[in-house]
Sequence to fold (199 residues):
Amino acid sequence: MRSDNRFFSDGEMAELLRQLRQRASGGRLIDKIDHALVTFAWATGCRASELSSISLSPTQANRIDLQSGLVVITDAKWDSKGTIPIDAASLRVIRRYVREVRPTIRNATVMHQLFLTKTGHPYTPNKMTKKLGMLLKRYGLAGKSAHSFRHFFCTDLLRRGVALHEARALMRHRDVRSTMVYSHSTIDDLRAAVNRRIG
Fold:
């Protein structure tokens, strides 16, 4: 069992998404960008290096097709290629970001990357890692990192009964043993198990 502070609990993730959604409804550009970025990280389990490279262009190696709601990864760590469907609610957030928010960012018309800094520069993998770390600290989640989103994505899939081979495909692991690392019990799982005894 691993339950240390590096990983999100269900409650922490739900609260983070709620706060980001609420702040994005205000007028600040950075809050709208942050909401879309975290939603995408939560919905896809992409690594920071992949988040920084996701493109709106169909000719790029790592890209999103907004019409089909598919994220295609063909250039990734350890050659972990694959396709990730985005759930309908998250896709609405990303489409709204592309339609309404991204055009207001400086240089957006000449950049193909999905996510840009508020000053109109593309992210490097290192800058994306730092960005997510700073964002999490701002929301009271210090100790968690960009990888915490990927960890939550896989753990959540397995806890919801997704077959191991399907989780492996979504995580783009070459070896199913890499996926099995995420199949540990969390404190939330153990609490639910105890409550089932009482109910």
In short: Strands lie at 62-65, 70-73, 82-85. DSSP finds nine helices and three strands in the chain. The longest helix spans residues 29-44.
